[in-house]
Structures are given as C-alpha cells and as structure tokens.
Give the backbone structure.
Amino acid sequence: MAQTQTLSKNQKIILDIIEKANEPLKAYSILFSVQKKGIKAPLQVYRALEKLIKLGKIHKVESRNAFIACKSSNCEISKATAFSICETCEKVTEISDQKLSKYLKNFHDKTGMIYKKYNLEFYGLCTTCKRN
Amino acid sequence: MAQTQTLSKNQKIILDIIEKANEPLKAYSILFSVQKKGIKAPLQVYRALEKLIKLGKIHKVESRNAFIACKSSNCEISKATAFSICETCEKVTEISDQKLSKYLKNFHDKTGMIYKKYNLEFYGLCTTCKRN
DNA sequence: TAACAAACGTTACATTATAACACTATGATA
DNA sequence: TATCATAGTGTTATAATGTAACGTTTGTTA
Ligand SMILES: [Zn+2]
Ligand SMILES: [Zn+2]
Ligand SMILES: [Zn+2]
Ligand SMILES: [Zn+2]
C-alpha cells in the first residue's frame, strides 16, 4: 500500500515546508527554516528530500537545484516530470499535460535504449513578466 | 556571422578537451586536466563553459552537473536540448530527433507562457547495460 | 524477544559555483 | 592616434550544494 505510506518525523516537517512554499526551495534554505525544529545538519534535510522524491511527493528542479511539491499526482512516483520556468521571476510550475506525457512516455530512440524516467524543463517568460 | 565566431585561448583549450572526451566532463575534472596549460582557477573554467554554452558548442547535463559537446548542431544555440542518460553506466547521448524537437518547440501550455528554450533528459538503461 | 530495516544524529569533508577586484587585449570611433 | 567600449584574463577568497562514515534509535516482523 504505497499510498498509505506514513512519513517519518523529519520527512513530514520538510514536506510540510515545501508544500506551503509557493516557490521551489533550496536545500539550505529548508535547513535554515527547520533548525528551530531540531533539524541541524544538511544530511538530515537531504535524506528526507531523497525519500520524498522517491515517493513522488516532491520533485527536484534540476536546473535550479531546488525542490518543489508535486501538484499533479499524474507523474507516477516522479517518473515523468515537466516544468515551466520563468527566467525573469524564477516562477516554476509543474506541467500536467496528458498529451505531452503520453508522447514522452512512448518516445523511443533508434538505439533501443529503455527509458524509465524523464524530466523536461521549459524556460521562458511567464505571462506576468511578459506584460512588464 | 555566428559561425565564424572565433574563440579565445581558454575557450579553445576547454572546448577541445570536452570534444575529445567520450563522456560528459565535470568542471573540476576539466580544471585538473588544463592546469598544465596554465588554467589554474575554477573561474577560468566556468567562464569559458558559460561562453561555450551560449554559443551552442557545448551543453550542460543538468542532472549530472556535467558538460558535453554538442553533436547535433540542430539545437540552434542550445535552445532545444535532449539527452538520454544511462543510470547504470552514466553514458550520455544527445538525442537528435526531428519529430521530438518539433513537438517540443511547438508546445504551449494553457497559461500562455512563452517558451524560449527547453531541456529534456531521459533516464534509463542503455543497450549495453541491458544485456548485462 | 531477537533480528532486521529504516530513520536518525553528528562530525567532518567533498564538490560545485560565484563575488570582487585589478589588469590586458581587441577592435571600433571620432 | 587618442579614447572608448567590450570581452577576456588572472587571482584570492568564499559561498552554495551535496556526501562519507560512524554509531545510535526506532519501528516492524518472525
Ligand atoms: Zn509531479
Ligand atoms: Zn515571470
Ligand atoms: Zn546540441
Ligand atoms: Zn549503460
């Protein structure tokens, strides 16, 4: 029962912070904000992040070294992720597009390589920044 | 004449190393191998890397913090990159697929955001590792 | 209750990347 | 030819990101 998976104390604390943020969080900014809750060392944060990623609760935005809560619950356990990133305001949004994910899941190259996961990041200008 | 762009001394040295490598190189492993050529500091490497990326000569493999020479010359000045990455042997290959790049270049989300660039990374098992 | 796996806490360290400053080369321009 | 702008260089120091290694604690299961 993967869905009933109960999180550990540290995992809950860190997921909570990431879910409440409206932007991707960096590992060390997470560390600073949980130090009052007794989490003092980077490793405690990174271990929780690693587990949360495995569970698909959060994703890493690779080009930004930052972590964001999963909003789509379509990206089965983090195997298929897509983000839009504004290069001006750094706003990051998870893309949930059935056609896109279907297209990418079915993608095969000529070599016959087996793809288990993918991560796609679009960079551009969000609608707010476009106006300014 | 973007093609006739001439590279500086450091840029040439570093591009040369990356092009001759058959794997993505890390910034500090580049640094170590160019120290005999007088490049002593990380910044000298990172500055050259930054320029080479802008020119589309190399790409950064974001999830690996590593740099690889562009093989496709279809990804106009690094605006559209796709890689396949073997999670076992860490072999990285740039994907040149007309259909894929066309599909992604034309992708629009509901928000109306303008996409200028994208980077896609597939993770899986290469054909060599599949056999073992 | 023994045995095991997962999570925890801690110290130390490794890796990746940038800030700040002064200097140099190059080519355009007036 | 002076002078101006731009890009590149070299250097020191430091910031930011991520792990290794060790032993302990906790919860689950046989
Ligand atoms: Zn998701
Ligand atoms: Zn924006
Ligand atoms: Zn390329
Ligand atoms: Zn492989």
